Amino acid sequence: MEYVNELYKIGASTEDIIILAKLLKPFAPHLASEILEKEEADDKWPEYNEAYLVSDTVQLIVQVNGKVRAKLEINSDDLKDQEKIKELALSQENVQKYLNGEPKKIIIPKGAKLINIVA
């Protein structure tokens, strides 16, 4: 409705009406189809590029004794290097605060985005 109100204020172009009809299509398909037919526009949704869906960084959660103590942003290529992940996790200030010396065990499941440290 806000978009429609803005179109009333500034005066809607044909392109604006086509965009509105495409946005309305999931909610009011028959009305949107009629508008698109009247404007002689295509009835297709925009295509997407899968290359933009892949993220370069991954967020890892670091737990100490089952409680979240830190979050790491690392490069997705570094997920395979478990030693580097361990170093980064243990170097976090908040993790160091809850460790009493050396950790007993560090659990990093393959493909997971969670590091569990048992102190």
TrEMBL record:
Domain of life, per lineage: Bacteria
Catalysis performed (reactions): tRNA(Leu) + L-leucine + ATP = L-leucyl-tRNA(Leu) + AMP + diphosphate
Family: Belongs to the class-I aminoacyl-tRNA synthetase family.
Protein name: leucine--tRNA ligase
UniProt keywords, alphabetically: Aminoacyl-tRNA synthetase, ATP-binding, Ligase, Nucleotide-binding, Protein biosynthesis
Group of enzyme by EC: ligase
Species: Candidatus Nanosyncoccus nanoralicus
GO molecular function terms listed in the Swiss-Prot or TrEMBL record: leucine-tRNA ligase activity
Enzyme Commission code(s) on record: 6.1.1.4
Residue span, Methionyl/Valyl/Leucyl/Isoleucyl-tRNA synthetase anticodon-binding domain: 19-78
Gene3D superfamilies in the record: Isoleucyl-tRNA Synthetase, Domain 1 (1.10.730.10)
